[in-house]
Amino acid sequence: MEIVAKRDLLKDRYGNYYMVSYASKKSLTIVNAAMYHAFNQMLNEELVAKVKAKYPNDVACGKYFADLVHEQVKEMNRPGNPGNIYDIEDVKKEYDLHMKPLYDDSFHLS
Predict the structure, then answer these.
(1) Taking a C-beta distance cutoff of 8 angstroms, is the pair 28, 35 a contact?
(2) Average pLDDT in the 4-26 region?
(3) From CA 22, how far away is CA 40, in angstroms rounded?
């Protein structure tokens, strides 16, 4: 199992997805995938325009980022697309996992 940072996803038993933000030989840093997307986009007019174009009515910010994860999963499940989705329990057998907390003062993902 070779997991690639900023490409592969992990899925837990509750259906939550995690982006691998950093990968070394035996260690992974993971973060909730919707939060990963949210913290890697600037809040500006371009983002507001994308959200307004996608949803006909007002929508909570989190909905947009959760939908980005849903779209990413759909793309990853299509044949020939890069990236894999791994069961987090299987990954734990081969890697040490470090989850980036959402309340961390230095929440920087790039």
Answers:
(1) no
(2) 94
(3) 14
96, pLDDT greater than 60? yes
The strands making up 85-87's β-sheet, listed across from edge to edge, are: 85-87, 9-11, 17-23, 27-32, 96-99
Whole-angstrom distance, CA of residue 92 vs CA of residue 79? 26
pTM: 0.83
Over range 16-45, report the average pLDDT: 91
* In contact, 84 and 72? CB cutoff 8 Å: no
DSSP string, 52-91: HHH-SS---HHHHHHHHHHHHHHHHTSTT-S--EEEHHHH
The answer to whether 29 touches 110, Cβ cutoff 8 Å, is: no
